[in-house]
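Q: Sequence in, structure out?
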Amino acid sequence: MERNMRDPQQMRTQNAQPLPEQAVILAAQEAARTRANQQAQTARDTSAEAALLAARAHELLQKYRAGKASLDARVVENDQWYRLRNWEHINRSENPGDPEPVSAWLLNCLANKHADAMDNYPEPVVLPREAGDQADAQILSAVLPVILEQCGFEQTYSDMWWRKLKSGTGVLGAFWNPAKNGGLGDVDIRCIDILNLFWEPGVTDIQDSQGVFHVELRDNDNLLRQYPQLDGRLSTPTAEIAQYVHDDTIDTAGKSAVVDWYYKRGSVLHYAKIVNDVVLYSSEGDAEYAQRGFYDHGKYPFVFDTLFPCEGAPAGFGYLDVCKDAQIYIDKLDQVILKNAIMAGRPRWFVRQDGIVNEQEYADWARDFVHYQGTGNPEEHIRPIEVAPLDGSVITVRNNKIDEMKETSGNRDFSQGGTSSGVTAASAIAALQEAGSKLSRDMIKSGYRAFQQVCYLVLELIRQFYDEPRSFRIVGEQGAIQYIQYSNARIRQQAPGMEFGMQIPGRVPVFDLQIRAQKSNAFSTLAQNELAKEFYGLGFFNPQLSDQALACLEMMTFDGKDRVVQRITQNGTLYQQILVMQQQMAQMAAIIDAQNGTNLSGARGGDQSAREQTNPPSDAQGAGGAVQTNPLGDLAANQSGLSTAAQRRAQNSAAPRG
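A: Exactly. Output:
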């Protein structure tokens, strides 16, 4: 009886316990509510972090833009000067009828500097720091030019040089574009407009800036198609950039400013894309890049190529700023000269109020007769206005200003192929060209240093992103076309290991870069060909003279010297091997003659004498005489070594020294 009696409270507790299936369902619902709350909290936190990030970016951008206002104004004004619109920035005459001539002396200076830069278009050569990386260095030396060509770098390099000469600073950017090659991604090199770039005021090196902004106006419709979350938030752009003065009317009402913000957290580089305070992407919020950074090299992807540097700023000034003052007075003096010429060429007349001469008939040169009234002298009633001739000092000052611009820019007549009276000797012309090209060599050398930094960034992008093999068509030895596949398998950081019981960090292959000119200059190419023919004429490739040729080459410096030394050394080694074989054949012939009673030794000696009589050593092959040819390859009259050397120096005067 007691066994069947139960506590009512205990019975209610047991009835309250859910079934096992119900417990599972309740637990799942509770977990779902927890996850939803966590996701909502995470979304709120992320939204708050994004708002703080956008506010911080907007604050820094306004500060950087205010500090760069004077530079932007100078860049816009220099672009007007480049377009030959300098009278808009010169104090004009109060007489609206005065001529406003525009001479292109300054533009000619910029064009010649640009031509010198493109004549020495750079080419990278990758050098390993360890012997085990030699194979990768050779492949990268062939692959890097292909990547540059695929990016259209020659046009990019040309655009950068025009901006460098105009504003004093050219900017190149090396980025990873994941949309290239059908989504496989590849390196993207672009010329950056300095008006679209903003950095911390007061820094000299762009890498020392707290952050770097790149701002670009893009069409709202395109932004909405790419980023639907921007719907309703593209009405008022929050960033402004300076604009050039264009010939066309450009409407920016339907555009928004896309801000690319690069900033550093210690040595880690992060990146954020912001449009109208909306954060479209942040590497700090991306799990893949939150710790390692957006780019592994940790540098801003911008390289500044400055012509004339300024303290406290990564941007400098260019030849247009230097020569602007001389161009102003050249144009003003041209205005005076032309106005005087127009006044002298268009006669004007004094006419009395009560004159007797018919003015209409007098002004009409188609009439043979001009009537006048009365009996007086008509010359007393009308006489020409005499214009005083221009003083010769005006022409002298104008020519002096032109010479001043040439001297200041180093754009002398000799650097353009012209000569002055009395200078006819080849050595004198070459010496003047050599002296006049120092500025061009220094300018091109600074461009090579900036190009070297761009190539380092490209190498690091290859190390980070080339996970999949890429196919390249390269030019191999002897000009043969080769197809290779390359990835970052051997150049990325290797896994750490153990040596002698100690943890060894992972090794990262390190490469050096050497920049050289591609010899696109026709005169430099001709000089190189003439040097090769001169070597041939002096017998440098004669195996019998290999020791003398190598001794001479040790004292010489020219492009491709290593390959010439290697070929001459191979010729000498092959010649020594042939001599040894000939001695062995002579010994074998003597043994055979002794055994068989033949005369192979005598027959062999007769054949060798016949060959020597048939093919005697020519002057070019052994005697050391030089074969002189003109640029077309025809035989030319013998020239002195001094004249030939002067001609070669003149042809290579603008090439930077290694």
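The chain has a mean pLDDT of 80.
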